[in-house]
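[Automated response] Your request has been received and processed.

Submitted sequence:
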Amino acid sequence: ASYFRYFNGRPYTDSLCYLTITQEAKKSRLFSYDSKKWRDFLVKIYKVRDLLRDSGVQVKFLNKAEASEYVDRYFAMNFKDRTVSMTNVKADDETVSMGDKRCKVYSLVDVDCAALPSLIRPYTNIEVNNTEMPVDLVSVVDNIPNAETVVYNQIIFLPSQKRELALLDKKKNRHASIPNPSNQMAVEDIKQVQDVIARESKLLVYTHFNMVVGVPADTDLQKCTNHLENAFGRMGIHISKRAYNQLELFVSSFPGNCYSLNEEYDRFLTLSDAAVCLMYKERVQHSEETPLKVYYTDRQGVPVAIDITGKEGKNKLTDNSNFFCLGPSGSGKSFHMNSVVRQLHEQGTDVVMVDTGNSYEGLCEYFGGKYISYTEERPITMNPFRINREEMNVEKTGFLKNLVLLIWKGTQGTVTKTEDRLIEHVITEYYDAYFNGFESFTPQQREDLRKSLVIDDRNSSEKRHESERERAARIEGIIDEIEGRRKELKVEELSFNSFYEYSVQRIPDICEENRITGIDLSTYRYMMKDFYLGGNHEKTLNENMDSSLFDETFVVFEIDSIKDDPLLFPLVTLIIMDVF
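Generated structure:
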C-alpha cells in the first residue's frame, strides 16, 4: 500500500490514438448520398480493422456519442477533464486561443524549404545510464515543457499512383531542360525515387504533419517552440517557423476535415515508408493481466505490473519460467531481486534461495523465514542417497551419478564414457541391493556371464590343457565366486557412507567381470573418502536435512563462506536444488 501511496498523485502523460479514415468526394456531389459508395467505404474500413487486429493492435470503432465527444474535445483542446466546456475562439498570426488556453500549430514540413534529412529511420537512440536505447523518432512530442495537451496530426493522402508518376516524370523533364547544378540534383533525386518505386512497388503519398500544442494562457509559448526546434533539429528536421495560417491549420486538422488542407503549401509528396517513419509509434505501457504481478515503473515513473515469467499472464510469451538478471556491480541486481521475491512471496509463492553475499537476510527476517548459513562447524547437510522406491528413476540416478563424478573428478576433470557408465551401473546395483537384496543370479544372468567368460577365455593368450568338461566346471566356479562376493555385499541403510562402502568393493568386481582396464580406483577411493566417515566433510552427505524446512515458505541458504571452494560450492548448490 505504501508503494502505491508513493506514486499517488504523480502527473503523467497519457497517450490516445484516433485513426480517422476519410474518402474524398467530388466537390459537386458533396451533399448527395450514394449507397454503393458508402458500402465500398465500409468494406475498406472493416479491412483496415481486421488488418490491425491481425497485427496485434487493439482497435474499436467509435459510436456516435464517442465520435461527438472526440470532436468536442479537439475543439476545446481538452482531453483531460471529465466534462468539457466550449468557449470563444480567438485566432491571430501566432496562436489560436480558447478561454484560459492558448494553442500553437507547428507544421513539421515547410514546403517552401523542405528541410528533411535524405535518409530517415523509424527510431532514434537515447542514452540511458551510458547505454543506447531505441525510442520512436518523434517521441519528443510527449514531453514538451508546459504543454497540457498535444495533438499530433499525422495526415497521409493516398493519391492516384498513375497520375502522380506522370506528374513526377513531367517535373523531372522540366528540371532537366535547364541544366544548372540545383536542377541536376533535383533530376537525380526524382530518378532515385522512380527507381525505388519501380523496384520495390512503393507508394507515393502526400503527407502533412502538425502539432497542436495547448498551454495555459499565461505561459510563454517560446519555450515550447525552442524545445521542438532543438529536438527536431537534432534529427535533421527543421519545423516550419512561418505557420501564419494558424486558424486554417487548426480547422483543417479537425477530425475528418483533412481535405481542406491547402494542396499548394501544406501537402508534401514523399514515399509511404518515409511518411510512416514520421508517425508517432510510442504508447503508454499498461499493466499486464496476470495473477503474478511484479511492479516496475515506466519511463515516466508510473507503476506498471509485469509478469516476469512470461507465462502466467493473458498473453503467454513462453512456457519456460526461467529468467536471467544481468548487470555490472552496483547496478541494483540484488535490490531488484528483493523486490521480485517480496512480491512473489506476498502472492503465495514458496521461495527457496541460494545466495552469496547476505543480500536477502533482511527480507528473510521480515517474512520470518529460515536463514541457513554454511559454516565449518555447522555445514549445510542433507542425505541425497536416502530416497524411497517410488523416487527411483532415470532423473534421480542421473543426479547421483553427476554428484559422485563431481567428487571424484572435480569441476575441471574429464570423464570418459566408461567411467560415466560404470558409476551409473554401481548406483543401480546399490539401490537394487537395498530394495530387493541379492540372493543369486537369475538363469539368464548366469547364461550371459557364462558366454562372456567363454569368449574372454578363448581370446586369452594363456593356453590351458583341459577338456571341455573341465573348462565348463572352471567357468561355473568363477561364476559361483562372483555370485558369492556379490551376496556378501549388503546395504543396510541409504547414505553416502553405505554407498562408499558398497562402491569401493563392487567397482573392482565389475571391472574384473567385464575386463575393464584403465580405471583409477585409488584416486576414486581417495577423493570419495573426504565425504566418508572420519573425512573433513563427513556430515555433508550423511546427515538428513532438517525436515521442518519443508513446511517453511521462505528459505535462504547463505553459502558465502564456500563460494571460492571449487568442490564444495558446486556440490552444495547441486544438492540444495535436488532436495527442493
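Summary generated for your ticket: The mean pLDDT is 86. The chain is about 40% helix and 15% strand.
If you did not submit this request, please reply to this message.
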